[in-house]
Design brief:
Number of helices: 18
Structural class: alpha+beta
Shape: globular
Low-confidence stretches: none
CATH topology of the largest domain: BirA Bifunctional Protein, domain 2
CATH superfamily of the largest domain: Bira Bifunctional Protein, Domain 2
CATH class of the largest domain: Alpha Beta
Radius of gyration: 30 Å
Strand order of the largest sheet: 6-9-10-22-21-20-17-11
Number of strands: 22
Length: about 600
């Protein structure tokens, strides 16, 4: 063994009885049960061992040591009289002969009890993350993360990929999120940017003649936190393949990911290849979202025409779309429905409506009085039977879809029998629009990745430029990988032709000179003979979050920032000295 121990605290078994051992770890607990007898729990990375002090001198020695101090204990292993079957070491104990304090905990009280740290306020946990990580439950998530990364790395090598690290200090480029900028001391007034993704570098590797690239890539984006998104930085399994199509990328992912999910996941079942493929617009129409959870058996139907003329204002307004979700075998209360609808409104920003078919086949509840005059027609059109709930959304198409997506998720998770939860359901979202109208700008913008190949190539773009087709109808060779309602990754067949690239950017008001200025390396490299190539980058953090069945991504990151992108433990971001600013030719203004 290394250091000053013969064994770890998770190692000793009944076969070790009689051995003299030395253990090192943290003093987790000291329970004195009588004169001259106390039970001490010693914990290290590998587990816990009970130390039984059975002399008054040894009891007093341990009593003088504060909890969470690191200690070295030398003693003899013996069989426990009262065994603990819940512990791997529960059949033995160590009777100490000597104890040495290796690192004293100078605090009589801790900010939280180690084994219950997850019950503490998150800000306290993050400030004392080094204590939080001593909690075996928290620590195990980080161990899982390491195991998953190792498995992914080995699988990529097995599939003929080569790991290449790409630069962290690079140039700013318009990739969809805000950059983190780094002032360049030797270039006053100029800045590096931390990469939002290794996108351009991995494409340049394809131009360089590398065939299959991957890395566990750090990415940096100055964006707000969510439950499944960490602010600041995250990691992804970044990959790219030369002379490849969408099918090649799908084949690798469908071979690499399911075994990892089955081996390390909370659930042992995972989708087998090939994964279901759903066009983007179909997903919005059928599920109200571009990341549906296929563990839920509910879907949406367009009932705009069916619901017209009922005399219900929200359904009769001009330009309104109406969607319906039919939930069969429904036996819940009115209170249950109201709570679900309230939660949907909070999430989606729009109120859903409902009615039900009761056990007698009668329309009841919600907007029943508007539906009853047309009950037979509506029941026949939707195939409604007894004990069925119908939840509806309305508004502009995008809002009606968004509300319905929330309806499907909320009621699908809560109504018994409509969600097969204990599995990992993968699917591909394909055929994304190349362009969209920006919510803020009101002008044509790239919908996803600006480096994607438009379907139809240059000819399609030229038709849009001439006004022969609507640019919003142009599809791109882009795809998303979704699992259990979480977007795991986006990818694309890349636009490797400079002429097509320039034309694609011209439609969003950027000239050839703009492209050359913003993407000089990529543009120039493609003019030297670029191979067709495609790639994807599943998120490591989200992957581990799903495997650990955690609701917050911060639970699987060793040292996460809080929701405001602050590191409470290290005090970052923080102020710097005037001298540092002067060296960087920067002045901070109020």
């Amino acid at each position: 063994m290394t250091q000053s121990r013969t064994n770890t605290c998770g190692e000793l078994r009944i076969g070790d009885v009689g051995k003299k051992v030395t253990l090192c770890g943290w003093l987790e607990n000291d329970r004195e049960v009588g004169a001259g007898l106390s039970f001490i729990v010693l914990r290290d990375f590998y587990g816990v061992t009970q130390i039984t002090a059975d002399t008054e001198e040894m009891v007093n020695t341990f009593k003088a040591i504060t909890k969470e101090s690191t200690v070295q204990v030398t003693g003899t292993v013996r069989e426990r009289s009262s065994k603990n079957p819940k512990l791997p070491t529960g059949e033995i104990e160590v009777v100490p002969e000597s104890v040495k304090v290796l690192g004293k905990c100078s605090h009589d009280s801790l900010p939280f009890e180690i084994n219950h740290s997850r019950e503490a306020d998150e800000s306290v946990r993050l400030k004392y993350r080094y204590l939080d990580l001593r909690n075996p439950e928290v620590k195990n998530n980080i161990i899982l993360r390491s195991q998953v990364i190792r498995a992914l790395r080995e699988a990529m090598y097995d599939h003929g990929f080569m790991e290449v690290t790409t630069p962290i200090l690079t140039a700013s480029s318009p990739e969809g999120a805000r950059d983190y900028l780094v002032p360049a001391r030797k270039h006053p007034g100029e800045f590096y940017a931390l990469p939002q993704a290794p996108q351009q570098f991995k494409q340049l590797l394809m131009v360089s003649g590398f065939d299959r690239y991957f890395q566990i890539a750090p990415c940096f984006r100055d964006e707000d936190a969510r439950g499944d998104r960490s602010p600041g930085e995250f990691y992804q399994l970044d990959m790219e393949m030369a002379f490849a199509t969408q099918e090649d990328v799908f084949a690798v992912c469908e071979d690499v990911l399911p075994p990892v999910f089955e081996k390390f996941g909370t659930y042992s079942r995972s989708t087998k290849a090939p994964f279901v493929r759903i066009p983007y617009l179909t997903a919005l129409e059928k599920y109200g979202t571009d990341k549906p959870d296929l563990r839920i058996d509910l879907s949406a139907a367009d009932v705009t025409e069916l619901m017209k003329g009922l005399g219900f204002g929200p359904f009769d307004a001009e330009g309104v779309s109406v969607k319906a979700c039919v939930i069969s075998d429904f036996h819940e209360s009115r209170k249950f429905i109201d709570k679900g609808c309230c939660d949907v409104e909070v999430i989606s920003g729009a109120k859903p409506y409902w009615f039900r078919v009761d056990e007698n086949g009668e329309i009841a509840g919600g907007i029943a009085k508007f539906v009853k005059p047309q009950a037979d027609r509506i029941k026949e059109a939707l195939g409604l039977k007894e004990n069925t709930l119908v939840v509806l959304s309305s508004g502009k198409l995008s809002q009606a879809q968004k509300t319905m997506g929330s309806v499907i998720k909320t009621f699908g998770e809560r109504v018994p029998g409509h969600m097969d939860k204990e599995q990992y359901q993968f699917l591909w979202i394909v055929d994304f629009p190349m362009y969209e109208i920006g919510e803020e700008s009101g002008e044509l913008e790239f919908c996803h990745n600006p480096f994607s190949m438009p379907k139809g190539g240059l000819e399609t773009l030229e038709k849009a430029e001439r006004g022969e087709i609507d640019p919003l109808t142009i599809m791109a060779d882009q795809y998303d990988l979704v699992v259990n309602g979480v977007e795991l990754s986006s990818g694309a067949v890349r636009n490797h032709d400079p002429e097509i690239m320039v034309k694609a950017f011209e439609l969003v008001r950027l000239t050839e000179d703009d492209v050359k200025q913003k993407f000089p390396a990529l543009y120039n490299a493609f003019s030297y003979g670029a191979p067709p190539h495609a790639g994807i980058a599943p998120g490591i953090d989200r992957m581990v979050m799903l495997l650990a069945a955690e609701d917050s991504i911060r639970e699987i990151i060793p040292f996460p920032m809080n929701k405001n992108a602050a590191d409470l433990m290290m005090g970052a971001p923080g102020k710097v000295t005037d001298k540092q600013l002067e060296e960087l030719h920067i002045k901070v203004t109020e």
